[in-house]
Write a structure and sequence with these properties.
Layout: H1 2-29, E1 41-46, H2 53-68, E2 78-83, H3 88-100, E3 105-109, H4 111-120, E4 126-131, E5 150-154, H5 160-171, E6 177-182, H6 187-199, E7 206-211, H7 215-225, E8 231-235, H8 239-243, H9 245-254, E9 259-261, H10 264-268, E10 273-276, H11 279-294, E11 311-315, H12 316-321, H13 328-333, E12 336-338
Parallel strand pairs: 1-2, 1-3, 3-4, 4-5, 6-7, 6-8, 8-9, 9-10, 11-12
Antiparallel strand pairs: 10-11
Length: 339
Amino acid sequence: MQFDRIRRREFITLFAGAAAAWPLAALGQQPAAQQSKSQPRVGVFLYLNEQDPESKAYVSAFEKQLRSLGWMPGTNLEIHYRWTGGDAGRIRQYAAELVSLAPDVILAAGGSHVGPLQQVTSTIPIVFVQVTDPVGAGFVDSLARPGRNATGFTVFDYDIGGKWLELLKQIAPQVTRVAVLRDPANPSGTGLFGAIQALAPSQKVEASPLNLRDASALERNVDEFAGKPNGGLIILPNSLAIVQRKQIITQADRHRLPAVYPFRYFVAEGGLIYYGPDPIDQYRQAAGYVSRLLKGERLGDLPVQTPTKYEMVINLKTAKALGLDVPPTLLARADEVIE
């Protein structure tokens, strides 16, 4: 009996020691995202390629503003970037990857990236930039009270589509046919095209959509459109157009098609005219929202903000190459003229 008691005591001691070690072993097998984080973690989900100069400008503005707010990437903050280049497969893949890292906040650019994120997380806060209609897309419940897990900064309202058409007619009065370049998968494209189409009869213009899918289809469709006279282009904001902007600008120049663009860098790279807000400023503002969320503020207390300032840039060199005489009244309204 004494022998049995000794064996029983040894067994209980060994069992207790092994049981105590189990949680440590299990912790070592957990994914890194499930282990305790030494510092806050932010995911950044961008539609450009990593080496795109505009992508670098966005990242620089975002990180600079974070530093001014006391967040030092690599010191008291982790930032994990994913660049998709507008590729639908990468968008889905990287959305899942970022969510698996369990960041405290995700910064997402464009509606084509916010939607896939919300499909894989309903809890991680998302701060978006460069989104046209977050309510219509279902990203938020309202601008004042976002609800759900997203808030941020809109880039356009649909009325700007009509403004782009008016500008095209002012700078190129001979235009009677307009191809509207859009990504059919981007929900904002439908609303913007609708605004253009609604104004087209009063401008004596026929507007038709030209869907962007890949580089070869883009070239073929623009070539076909340019086969008839008096054509012009309006490029809607979407990741495919931005990634393929050099090809679009080159084709517009080759076919002598006046074109209105949604961002300044299109015109800086040879496009004709741009009207819209400054996207870089949105990344600065987004850093402020990210900081407030990291400090514990509720996402529901951060309303969606709309642009307060728009600017116009005209490339006079391109206008001359297209044989256009820019009206003095339009030049006087321009914030910048590139010669």
